[in-house]
Amino acid sequence: MIVVKIGGAAGISHDSLCADAAALVARGERLVIVHGGSDATTTLARQLGHEPQFITSPSGHSSRRTDPRTLEIFQMACRGVVNQSLVLGLVRRGVRAVGVSGIDASLWRGTRKAAIRALEAGRTRIIRDDCSGSVEHVDPALLNTLLDAGCTPVISPPGLSEANEPINVDADRAAARTAAALRASTLCLLSNVPGLLRAYPDEESLVSSITIERLDEAESLAQGRMKNKVLAAREALLAGVPRVIIGDARVASPITRALEGAGTVFA
Amino acid sequence: MIVVKIGGAAGISHDSLCADAAALVARGERLVIVHGGSDATTTLARQLGHEPQFITSPSGHSSRRTDPRTLEIFQMACRGVVNQSLVLGLVRRGVRAVGVSGIDASLWRGTRKAAIRALEAGRTRIIRDDCSGSVEHVDPALLNTLLDAGCTPVISPPGLSEANEPINVDADRAAARTAAALRASTLCLLSNVPGLLRAYPDEESLVSSITIERLDEAESLAQGRMKNKVLAAREALLAGVPRVIIGDARVASPITRALEGAGTVFA
């Protein structure tokens, strides 16, 4: 069982991913694909005249401001753009792909952040109507039902809060929870970098492996979006996933390459 | 086994439908819900500045012009708005609802219209890049897998063409094909009218029942969107579905009411 999270940044081809996934499924691999929708949300929000906003926490962490309208746009982008594109790419290659969101059959249960502290012009503001949160519980039943029937699940945000509201959740960390719930042997986090870089953005400075004892060092190296990937790797490892690979989505056969050890291997 | 198609026009509450569906599922009914996205597509297209266009065929039939951009908007509206809303409404009521689109696991296979004849200012124009078509084959395997696992499928367009392209398909007629493939006992087509009206829009002129021999008469009475519903009823009956009910989605317990015979019963 392999869980693959695919990023959505520029330079990432769904074609390479889908072709590789189809080859793995044809060989009998049980595969679950997870994606987010951040870049597609930004594009759609601009088209709709609802300019994307980002919040910086007092600790310096940046995240999308998800007001109720942004949540609607996020759902259209995740479900109606990214998920449809991946499912279509797989179906075209003979895979029985099935798109599911985190709210389907309460797949991704979590908690909405009731109060977010945001730095604005040097002052801290509390935001109470944000529709973001984190996935805390994954119900593997629907995924196992689909896999047992020869289908390949493609999972999209949002998640579902304790009050049954959709919430914007980080897909890297949700993928980590999903890999743990499915007792996957490997979690691959694929994006537009070769892996964790010692001197970002120098791609020659790739860190090829990280042991569980050196996770703190990995976290101190991570920049920007990589912070969430390293955090996801930590969560997956601590939840019993034997191997996490942060790899490159921009290459041919990106899943196979990562499984062969290209990228940063956490074990 | 009951297949319910729910319309999206103004005045239709997803709450009533979801509450009723949850009660039926709790009693052990096998239920599949189908929806379209016409009204949501029109709303989103206007917000995106891509004004909706409709085509009139030489025979007087009106349909949405689905250029490639409209197909993208249609998918966002169907999957990211209507489907998410129905799934959420069901999950909130304890139903293990799972949203699937017609492209998932090649559920709704059909044909793209390679050439559409459109009347424009008295002349006939041929449109060759339209992304609409019709569903001709429904694979019930995924739906039965989900139903057997205690899940309730909520099916959204698009369908999938013979060339593996997404296509805008009429959800009433796709629901008819779906009911036939599932060997459903009843197909309910619920919208913002009480049923087929002898003198549209006079709601007192409801036709309460239609036998298979009187289908031509029903077709001659149907106006606007009702034409597709009567055509769907015909297709379902001819494909072996014993009973089709065109009923009112605007009332409390709309599915139960229809199953009790409120509306126009085709048998």
Biggest sheet details of chain A = 8 strands, mixed
Largest interface, with counts of residues having CB < 8 Å to the other chain, equals:
A-B, 36 and 36 residues
> Which strands sit side by side, in order, in the main sheet of chain A?
5-10-2-1-13-15-16-14
Q: What assembly state would you assign to the polypeptide chains in this entry?
A: homodimer
Architecture (CATH level 2) name of chain A: 3-Layer(aba) Sandwich
Radius of gyration of chain A: 18 Å
Number of strands of chain A: 16
Low-confidence stretches of chain A: none
Distance between the termini of chain A: 16 Å
**What is the top-level CATH class of chain A?**
Alpha Beta
Shape of chain A: globular
What helical percentage do the residues of chain A reach?
25-40%
Class from secondary-structure proportions of chain A: alpha/beta
Number of domains of chain A: 1
Query: So how many helices of chain A?
Result: 8
CATH H-level name of chain A... which superfamily? Acetylglutamate kinase-like
Strand fraction of chain A: 25-35%
Topology pattern of chain A, helix = H, strand = E: EHEHEEHEEEEEHEEEHEEHHEHE
Average predicted confidence as pLDDT of chain A = 96
Q: What name does the CATH topology of chain A carry?
A: Carbamate kinase
